[in-house]
Structure formats: structure tokens, C-alpha cells
Amino acid sequence: MRLRKMGKTYGDIQKILNQRIPKSTLSFWSKNAQLSPRHIELIRKRAEERMNNARLISAETNRKKREKRLESIKKGIKHLALLMKNPDVGKIALTMLYFGEGSKTRKGSLTFGNSDSRIISLFLRLLRECYEIDENKFRCTLQCRADQDINKLERFWSDITKIPSALFYKARIDPRTIGKPSKKLDYKGVCRIDYFSADIYNELKIIAQDISETR
Asked: Where would you tag: which of 22, 166, 187, 198 has the fewest CB atoms within 10 A of its CB?
């Protein structure tokens, strides 16, 4: 009762008494303790601090567990990246990527767009590794927001794609964004890649059909 009146939490009381007394028991024993407003506020703050600390500890524990799981997964699939050196496997991967993200309406060329630079890089790497590419047949179009620096975006995507800015079409600005400041400052817009080759498009299409029909 005396410790409780001093504004000690049940956890504090357990430590001071060096006893693992159930908190329900402590609550029953001290139910008639008259606490001052200052002690009530002190107990509330201490309880809030403990809860916040417990959340931080739990979050850190979960983070370490997640990192450990991801590292285990990474080790288990490390060999898959080596399979990409096989041209046939590369073409299958390129086909799946293109027919998942690319345009299927233009028959004379490949059209592939994404806002994720890693996806764009993977598409171009597979395309260049699987086929003999004429770099002059590439074109890039940026789709961006009204308040973005187009020249800066073109330099960024030119570095990512290894396509010179001279092969970029005029950027397309989304009219819905005029007068609306961007909230995501790291947003780089959407990069659309056009590669003019009906032969490659048709080959990827046939690969996709054969895979989908094989049982």
C-alpha cells in the first residue's frame, strides 16, 4: 500500500520486493490505496513508457528474425541467378516479364513501362543478352508529374537504361497533377521503353503460347 501510494507501478513493486507477485493480486491488495492526481499521472506515464519500450524491443526482435529468414531464403535460391546465364532460361524469364508488364497491343514492337528502375534494368538486360540488339531502335518516353524536373529525370533514366537522351521522345506530363505538389520526392515517373522489332515480339509471343499450352 505504501509503495502504491508513492506512485509505484506493479512492476516497480515486484522489483522492490524481489517477488513475482501476480499483478492481479497486487491490484486487489492496493485497491483501497488513495492516490494523488500526481501519482496517478506518474503511474500512467510509467506504464506508457514500459509499453513503448516493449513495442521497440518487439519490433527489433521481429526485424532480426525477418533478416535471418530473408538471409536463409537468399542462400537457398542463390543458384537460380546462375541459371540466367543459359540463353533459353533468359528468354523464358524475358517472356514472363514482358507479358506480365509489357504491351500486347502493338504488334510491330515491344513496349515496356515501369516506375521501378530495377524492373526496367532487368528487362533491358535480358533483352540485350538474349538477342542481337540494334541500339538505335530504342526509344524512351517519360511519363511524369507536372512539378518534376524533366531534364533531371531524363538523365536519371538515361543512366539506368544506357539509352542516350537523343533517343528520348518528348516527356508526357500527367495533366491531373498540374498544381498538385508531389508527395513522394523520390518518385522518378514512369519510363516507357519502345524497341522496334516485330520478330522479337512474335518470338516472345510464341514462347508464351507454347509454355501456357504445355502440360
From this structure: 166
Residues 6+ apart with CB under 8 A from 196: 108, 109, 137, 139
Residue 56 grid cell? 521497440
Please say whether the dihedral angle defined by the alpha carbons of residues 188, 194, 195 and 201, taken in this order, is positive or negative: positive
Classify the C-alpha dihedral 179-184-186-191 as positive or negative. negative
pTM above 0.90, yes or no: no
Residues 114/101, Cβ–Cβ less than 8 Å: yes
Q: pLDDT tens across 7-61, in order? A: 778 888 888 888 888 888 888 887 777 777 777 787 788 788 888 988 999 999 9
| DSSP label at residue 169 | P
Percent of the chain residues past pLDDT 90, beyond the cut? 58
To which H or E segment does residue 112 belong? strand 110-114
Distance, CA of 213 to CA of 215 (rounded, Å): 6
Domain definitions of the chain by residue range: 2-75, 82-213
| Residues constituting the chain | 215
